[in-house]
Amino acid sequence: MYELIKRDGMAKRGRLTTVHGTIETPVFMNVGTAAAIKGGVSTDDLRQIKTQVELSNTYHLHVRPGDEVVKKLGGLHKFMNWDKPILTDSGGFQVFSLASLRKIKEEGVHFNSHIDGRKIFMGPEQSMQIQSNLASTIAMAFDECPSSVADKKYMANSVARTTRWLKRCKDEMARLNALPDTINPQQMLFGINQGGIYEDIRIEHAQQISELDLDGYAVGGLAVGESHEEMYRILDEVVPHLPTNKPTYLMGVGTPANILEAVDRGVDFFDCVYPSRNGRHGHVYTNHGKMNLFNAKYELDDRPIEEGCGCPACRSYSRAYIRHLLKAKEMLGMRLCVLHNLYFYNTMMEEIRDAIDAGEYKAYKKRKLEGMEQK
């Protein structure tokens, strides 16, 4: 159940009530592909750094350890010791990223495991069954994520198939949620808008899927090669055609600047591997721009990554020490950078919510962007 609390221009301040607790939006979901955040981050850490939602990957967990294994162990929440909401993506993006290993047909996609090469078939029903076994809070519909440079005819056919798949997902989820042995019979379903950089295909698709009255709607197939300007243009065109009384999720985005711009266009769910991936390479986000802690100038710098930051890294350690850990390839260095970056993102989302509540989002966005553009 989604409640739209306030609007500030197009920016939305909302609240999604789920069986695993309440999600205050706009929200950044912390990405734990294989049921763990890369960089040695535990679910106890996630609680400490203000994580609201954890995101895991359907395809990866199906391949290893197997969704049946997770179901036997009581579902993903129990398996990874996390009692707050979890969103599972559908495996559709892997269809895009594993292009050389797959074959798309009407019934679904045949592809080879990236781990051991074994044959896998995934269609709408299989994706829903896997996600039901994982018992996530929110399941994503199975879609095809075509390349943003696909020609218009291919895109139109692909999007029409994604719509047919979405209806099959909805029917299958209703069936699964009614079964007696389903771990989470209140699992929610989000549909995904596709259409690359073709506004007309995107808008028509948004209108079609809005009629299905799903729990939420995602904009997929962006941040896969098009420019930031193209992404913002598509959001300007498409978001007004998605239901305002449901969450709007921009998949796989992005930088702090991308998030600030997308919130201004009505998006309220985000996920991205940037904060954890960059953290593992010593790149950390601050309110004064991004820092590379490998730089020699931090060798004797006894300040925290960012003055006034309440994350576990900044509360206890200096830039010099974290740089030493990174240079020595000590796991703790990566871990501290990842914790800092996720805390930075989660805190920024808190600030965004406060700014919308106060009706001051535009001024906040301008201030934040100007600060982060400093060098």
Describe the 3D structure.
With 375 residues, the protein is of the alpha/beta class. It folds into two domains: 2-272, TIM Barrel; 281-372, no CATH class. The protein is built from 15 helices and 16 strands. The chain has an eight-stranded parallel β-barrel, surrounded by four helices. The longest helix has 27 residues, at 331-357. It is globular and about 60 Å long. The N and C termini lie far apart (43 Å). The mean pLDDT is 95.
- The domain count comes to 2
Distance between the termini: 43 Å
Percent of sequence in beta strands = 15-25%
CATH homologous superfamily of the largest domain? Queuine tRNA-ribosyltransferase-like
| Overall CATH class of the largest domain | Alpha Beta
Strand arrangement, major sheet: 4-5-6-10-11-12-13-14
Shape, principal axes of CA atoms: globular
Structural class, please? alpha/beta
Instruction: Write down how many β-strands occur, each being a DSSP E stretch of 2 or more residues.
Output: 16
Q: Do you know the CATH architecture of the largest domain?
A: Alpha-Beta Barrel
Low-confidence stretches: none
Largest sheet, strands/sense/barrel: 8 strands, parallel, barrel
CATH topology descriptor of the largest domain: TIM Barrel
What integer is the average pLDDT? Answer: 95
Radius of gyration: 20 Å
Q: Helix segment count?
A: 15
Fraction of residues in H or I helices? 40-55%
